[in-house]
Specification:
Elements lengths: L2 E2 L1 H23 L11 H17 L6 H15 L2 H18 L5 E2 H18 L8 H18 L5 H22 L1 H6 L4 H17 L20 E9 L5 H8 L4 E8 L2 E8 L2 H9 L2 E10 L5 E3 L9 E9 L2 H9 L4 E4 L8 H8 L4 E7 L6 H10 L5 E3 L5 H10 L6 H13 L2 E7 L4 E3 L2 E3 L4 E5 L2 E6 L2 H12 L6 E6 L5 H14 L3 E6 L7 E5 L1
Parallel strand pairs: 8-9, 8-10, 10-11, 17-18
Antiparallel strand pairs: 1-2, 3-5, 3-6, 4-5, 7-9, 12-15, 12-19, 13-14, 15-16, 17-19
Helix pairs in contact: 1-2, 1-9, 2-3, 2-4, 3-4, 4-5, 4-14, 5-6, 6-7, 6-9, 7-9, 13-14, 15-16, 17-18
Length: about 525
Amino acid sequence: MKSLNCTRFKEMLVSGANNLANKHEEINTLNVFPVPDGDTGTNMNMTFGSGVAEVSKVMSDHVGDTCKLLSKSMLMSARGNSGVILSQIFKGVYKSVADKQSVTAADLAEAFVNGSRIAYRAVMRPVEGTILTVCREASEYGQHMVEENPDTTIEQYFDKLLHEARESLSRTPDLLPVLKEVGVVDSGGAGLVAVLEGFVAYLKGRPVGVKSETAPVEEKELGYCVEIVVKLNKGYDEERISRTVSKAGNIVNLCGAGNEAKVHVHSLKPGDIISALQTFGELMSVKVENLAVSHNVTLDYEDNQPKEKYAIITVCNGDGIQDMFHELGVTYFINGGQTMNPSTESFVSLIEKINADNIIILPNNGNIILAAEQSREVLSDRNITVLPTKTIPEGIAACVVFNPEGELADNIEEMKAAVANVTTGSVTHAIKDTSFNGIQIKEGDFMAIKGKDIVASLPDMMETSRALLDALVNDDTSVVTIIYGSEATQKQAEELQKYIVSEYDVDCDITDGKQDLYPFIVGVE
């Protein structure tokens, strides 16, 4: 095939999206950290699948126009760093073929090289051994082949692109030692390879369909976040609940205390989850949110609100954590964090409702920063500053020093200084057996995480938490803040508070954050 028309181009996109959908759970398992937030595959799937779904709804015979719609839709639905980078790759493809009704191998070769360039520019500190490397090396080899062989067909070009992408992916552990230690390749790169595999399969006459258990392309954005507290009947335990609920959705968190269990599930059929849990006991509370809708919560919000000098948007999960921010003057929230990376559209739709001269976004998670940054591109007429907070304690520290009457430059400087003075630690479950920095980790154990390092992995939560505190606190520490989640109790938090006060000469505050997945989040200043 010497050129690819729009119909075939769109069919190729669908095959790529379906292959990524089929493999996204497998890609999730490539997460380096064995923590319950390995969602690279999910983020890429939702980003690319949403874009392809929009393209599939529109009749067009122009590849450039189709790529424009794909790029715009992917930008708005982009989630996580991997999803944003993938959206930038296809933004570069669009920019290169904008005026093309059909495309040749030479057009595509130039387009994917341009996609690589734009993706690199979107990342403040590009890291080699990631999806960026896989895209760059594969696209450069593909372009070289086309330049050497002007008669290259579409099929030959994508064969080369896929081959080199796989080769580059296999080399990622040599560029990132942490990948080699854990024994995995880069998950973002694996997602890109999955898309290209779908492309090649289509061109070979074997388009990839969707596995029966995977939602089709046009349903990718559908789904619900279901949180239920159930008062258990006698004889039921967490293992039986887990087996039953997992048949109807993906369990994000399940924890029990006494005769109650709190279940957090993502499912396409929330009614099935509710019905299943009713068989285990009395439902005490039920909360259902549509994952396709921006989970924006605005407090003290009214239509036709007066113009404000500042508005701060913070991303967090847990009613207690939201209350902490609210007490510091934050009134705009996006529900998100680990396993729930909000899309660019989540930020855009909320910002469009805000009447303020200056908007400051606190992502509070390293995997949300890029999506927040993209809102600045979409709303270029608004004065938006993304303060790259990576943890909840960093976000709280930034809000403590914020001066609503001060100048923007002064506020940002003070907030950045406060963030730099915070060290964050957390305790969570290990989701797989592995090793990290010489520490042997077993699935189900509790891990103590300091910054980007795992400092302990033990069966007992409290012993692990004390190990974390020992790793965090030093002679320069003055204040320790312990935020306990839904899996921990106030009594356990108070026990850690007593430990800190008795062992170290520092102040220690405890707060019920009600967050999932992480029994304890600790901030040290």
